[in-house]
Amino acid sequence: MFACFYVPDFPVQAALLIELPQARNVFKQSPLAILDGPANLPRVFALNQPARQAGIESGMTKLQVETYGGVLLRKRIVSLEDSAQSTLMEFAGGFSPRVESTAAGTVTLDLSGSEKLLGPWPRVAHHIMSSAAKAGFDLHIAIASNPDAAFHAARVFPSITIIAPGEEALRLAPLPVRILPASPQTLEILEGWGIPTFDALAVLPTVAIAERLGQEGLYLQKLARGETSRPLLTMEPVKEFVASFEFEDPVETLESLFFILNRLLQQLCANLISGSFATNELRLTIGLEVRQLQTDGNKELYQHEWKLPIPTQDRHVLFDLIRLHLERTTFSAPIRELIVEIVPVKPRRVQGNLFLPPSPEPEKLEMTLERIRGVVGSNDEEGIACVGSPGLLDTYRPGSFTVHPFSSMDNTADSSPAARVVAFRVFRPALETSVKLNQQKPYYVQLWHRHLPVLAASGPWCTSGNWWNAFIWAREEWDVALKTAAGIGFYRIYRDRLRRQWFVEGVFD
Amino acid sequence: MQAALLRKQIEAELPSAFTVYRRKALGCIPTGIPQIDCAVQGIPLHALTEICGSNLASSGKTSVLSSLLAHASRQHFCALVDASDSFDPTSGASIQFSRLLWVRCGKSKARLGRLEQAFKVADILLQSGGFGLIVVDLSGLAEQRVRNVPLSSWFRFSRVIEKQAAALVFIEQEPHATSCAGLVLRVSAEPAAFSGNLFTGFHLKAEVLRGHEKRPVRSERSGFSLHTQWA
Predict the structure, then answer these.
(1) Residues of B whose CB is below 8 A from A484
(2) Which listed CATH number (3.40.190.10, 3.30.1120.10, 3.30.1490.100, 3.90.226.10) goes with A242-348?
(3) N or C: which terminus of chain A carries fewer CB neighbours within 10 A?
């Protein structure tokens, strides 16, 4: 047996799928039309039943529809329809592994052998209907012995239709022939013959049909009799890990953006969970209404990427990461489009260890780091991160360091004994100073507007590097003991031989 | 007799009226400097600790911090909130960097000042949990600004850290948390050691101004030497 799910007014239902359930129910009761076409003359592309009852027809111009008053108008967004079709495929995949995407808003699935698992067909159909309502779809469901009979029944008969084997011709009899996949010429011929319904076509003599309409006529007659048999063109439901939304009017407030963002992430995370995936990489692209001036040139898009230390399926974590970032980002233009992309990876499977030190929860840690970045910023003026683990660079250049992303996943314990050495406190940037020399040795050093006498000096230690490129440096260092009001301070001063200027680099503390 | 009767009557209404509030003392993190660890058993968990020393003269507070981080990072995940961005990764090579979260304050055009940033970040880290040691280095900031921090802030920090199996350490020029601190250490340096023309280290002195158990102030002193990396 085959089941066909048909979504009436599919573009309308696809447009409403992104709304909250309460709002969706309100919109279903109100006249709603989807407009498509050139921007200067949009026409009605699809509409719902209340709109039809109000007298609106497909093909009307926007101006004509507006004369009716009280009609909700939406611009057609093809990506929403694609997304709705994927959702419908996934939904059908919950009942059978063999699912065919027959047409936009229509899927056919093979239920053979699942009767014992799912129960009698009426119960299966009611279960599907109620599940579809929860998923946001109003469906026509037809169950028949062949896919085409189920397809035609679902397109015309509302709610649930179950056609027992052998009763196809009888049940399909009242259907109009215009729903058959015939060429316009053939339909015109049938209309000329006075054949309006399936039963009228089904009773015509086969030989006479073949003589007059050829193979197409024979195929149409078989369809009308419900006698066709074909394999389903099944395909693995393609998991969508990119979700986008284009605003009808550009938005300026984050609340509007977050509302849509939450829905998109909900959809993406549902796809992750259904495919037993998680994600550790998240990309956000925001299309702006006008060109935004950025440091690296004119761009219309704002992009940001997050790399998580561990894969997650938690929508709230992903949402909060984006929210915290956007709250401290300023856009110079209204937002026109939102694209969220996640990279599916295998979920983390780790067994806990009693002997590991307590560590910040990885999911929570990312949020904590994002909050901290919101306070102190992401990078300094040199592009080095403000939050992370310190690291050393493979260079002789004094004061070089880097900051790596911090992760609580490191469980390697260093058991080597910690050496007790004098620590150095760096002034970033180094303090410009003046030094008086006596016999080529520092004699007085100016520090914070005071001239401090040098009690002892060790140096000069001359270093240089990068003479082969633009980052050349050359300096002579001195470690000096300065007599201060609070005691003796051991400072490192150096003379930049290129700039011929003295600096205080830091203090041994 | 009258006092005992009064006490009994009050305790009948308010059972904890005369209960002495005791801080939890459930372990310490060693600093790695035996002289300090012998005197105070290390930096206490569930408590706020202040390590003070002069900013102008070499006092050894950064060396104590570096040694503490080096030891703590072998057992715990640590966080260093660096209000003046003065931490030098080169001299802290003994620290297990992969377990250290370094927050550099005041490096971007943020609305908040360095001090406010440091306190806010410390708050976030305490809420987050999971860090065994949180160090807030305020010693590079002007003393007057830190002195103006209201006592309620220190009190709040001490109450929050009491409920966590972590140590919260502030590095400052002078102690400010008063009774909110579980341990206050003051460190200072004595004349440096020179080997010929080469600076090789200095001798440090640590003084305990306040101990774990709120004992009567009994200043304990201990001296120790630190060497430079090249000595």
Answers:
(1) 56-57
(2) 3.30.1490.100
(3) N
Q: Are A477 and A492 in contact (CB under 8 A)?
A: yes
> Which residues in chain B show pLDDT less than 70?
1, 20-26, 109-110, 191-197, 212-223, 229-231
Q: Which residue of B has its CA nearest to A397?
A: B90
Contact A419 B194 (CB under 8 A): no
Residue B182 lies in a domain: yes
Q: Which long-range contacts (CB under 8 A, 24 or more apart) does A67-74 make?
A: A68/A31, A70/A30, A70/A31, A71/A31, A71/A32, A71/A33, A72/A27, A72/A30, A72/A31, A72/A32, A72/A33, A73/A32, A73/A33, A73/A35, A74/A15, A74/A32, A74/A33, A74/A34, A74/A35, A74/A248
Could you say which of A364, A376, A490 has the minimum Cβ distance to residue B199? Answer: A490
Q: How many domains does chain B have?
A: 1
Residue B112 lies in a domain: yes
Report helix, strand or coil for A347: coil
CATH code 1.10.150.20 region(s) in chain A:
168-238
Joined together, the tokens standing for residue A306 give 């997050």
In a structure prediction context, what are the per-residue pLDDT tens digits for chain A, which is 509 residues long?
889 999 998 988 888 887 777 788 888 888 888 888 888 888 988 888 888 888 888 888 888 888 888 888 888 888 888 888 888 888 888 888 888 888 888 999 988 887 777 788 888 888 888 888 888 888 899 999 889 889 988 988 888 888 888 888 888 888 888 888 888 888 888 888 888 888 888 888 888 888 888 888 888 888 888 888 888 888 766 667 888 888 878 888 888 888 889 888 988 888 888 778 889 889 999 888 865 454 444 557 888 888 887 888 888 889 988 988 888 888 878 888 889 999 988 887 766 667 677 778 877 888 899 889 888 988 888 888 899 999 988 888 888 899 998 887 766 666 666 667 788 899 988 899 999 988 888 889 988 888 888 888 887 889 998 888 888 999 999 988 888 888 888 899 999 989 889 999 999 88
Which residues in chain B have Cβ-Cβ distances shorter than 8 Å to A479?
A: 199
To the nearest whole Å, the CA of B37 is away from the closest chain A CA by: 14
pTM of the model: 0.67
What's B103's domain CATH number? Answer: 3.40.50.300
| Structural element, H or E, at residue A118 | helix A115-118
Residues of A in contact with B109 (CB under 8 A): 377
Tell me whether A421 touches chain B (CB under 8 Å): yes
DSSP-derived letter for residue A289 is: E
Whether B124 sits inside 8 A of A368 (CB atoms) is: yes
- Residues in A 427-466 with any Cβ partner in B closer than 8 A: 427-428, 448, 456, 458
**Residue-level pLDDT at A292:** 47
Q: Spelled out in words, what is the top-level CATH class assigned to the domain A2-165? A: alpha beta
Question: In this structure, what are the phi and psi dihedrals at residue A429, rounded to the nearest 5 degrees?
Answer: -80, 170
Q: Which domain holds residue B74?
A: 25-227
| Complex-level ipTM | 0.85
**Portions of chain A given CATH number 3.40.1170.60:** 2-165
Asked whether the beta carbons of A465 and A473 are under 8 A apart, the reply is yes
Question: Is the CB of A426 less than 8 angstroms away from the CB of B131?
Answer: no
Query: CATH fold of A168-238, please?
Result: DNA polymerase; domain 1 (1.10.150)
Nearest CA in chain A to B122: A372
Is B163 within a domain?
A: yes
Q: Which two tokens stand for residue B123?
A: 């708050």
Q: Does A422 touch chain B (CB under 8 A)?
A: yes
| Burial bucket for residue B117 (CB in 10 Å: 0-12, 13-18, 19+) | buried
Quick one: closest CA in A to B89, which residue?
A390
Kindly list the residues from chain A whose CB atom is less than 8 angstroms away from the CB atom of residue B110: 375-377
Name every residue whose Cβ is closer than 8 Å to that of residue A131 and which is 6 or more positions away in sequence.
A91, A94
